[in-house]
Amino acid sequence: MSLRLLIADDEPPLRDWLRRQLAEVAPDLLVVAEAGDGDTALADIETMRPDVAFLDIRMPGLSGLEVAARATVPCRFVFVTAYDEFAIQAFEQAAVDYLLKPVTTARLARTVERLRAAPAVTDQAGLLRELLARLDGAKPHALRWLRVGTADEVQLIDVNEVDRFEAADKYTTVYAGDREWLIRTSIKELELQLDPNNFWRIHRGTLVRVAAIKNVHRDLMGRLWAEFHGQSKPVAVSRRYAHLFRQM
For the segment 63-80, what is each residue's pLDDT rounded down to a tens digit? Predict the structure, then answer.
């Protein structure tokens, strides 16, 4: 019997991509519903009763984790996201698998194999124990990819291409050379997700990639300024973080 699937992601291009890739690796799977937000995803799970739900974690309304926690009908969950700090939470909600964007076709094929081998969800506690056992000894990974763009186009940017992040009200501006984007993740969240060896906070609202810094100089007022390769605009370094550059 073919598995019935639900796909939930707030970016239509990503839903389309996942649907096409699933059709390529397993043509017999049947996508019975798609949702662009968490509330719709939960309602569709309750009414359509899919065997498996592929859930983006960050969505408008309910998050993917909240959808899984509130579902009252038997369903297996696969979380698909660019934010790997949610891995532990995802598995604690009895996910069958956890996919980090950008998902490769080979990785998705392994997920489908796992779905076919997994028993129907009748013992949530047992499945939870199995999943937690898989995570035993797992080490957290720093954020590698950023999802940027508009409602019509999505790009995945390697964080090693980013020069700096700057707080912009409730958003964060991402600067990479002469390109820039707004994302919904705060500076505080990004600092927790990024590798602290590669990214430093140099101001209350600024995170920088260390390798992107060309030099740091002091002006006539004694203030420090960081200059970046390929950019003419220097960025202020607050006194609180000046110690980071004493040996540079």
Answer: 888 888 888 888 889 988
Q: Which two tokens stand for residue 212?
A: 């992107």
Do the Cβ atoms of 68 and 55 come closer than 8 Å?
A: yes
Q: How far apart are CA 244 and CA 179, in angstroms?
A: 27
In the predicted structure, residue 88 carries a pLDDT above the cut 50: yes
Share the mean pLDDT of the chain: 82
Q: How far apart are CA 122 and CA 137, in angstroms?
A: 27
Residue 55: the pLDDT is 92
121 Cβ neighbours under 8 A, 6+ residues apart: 74, 75, 76, 94, 127
Tokens read off for 244: 């980071």
**Residues 171, 151: Cα–Cα separation, whole Å:** 16
- 50 preceded by cis ω (within 30°)? no
Is residue 61's pLDDT more than 60? yes
Helix or strand or coil: residue 108?
helix
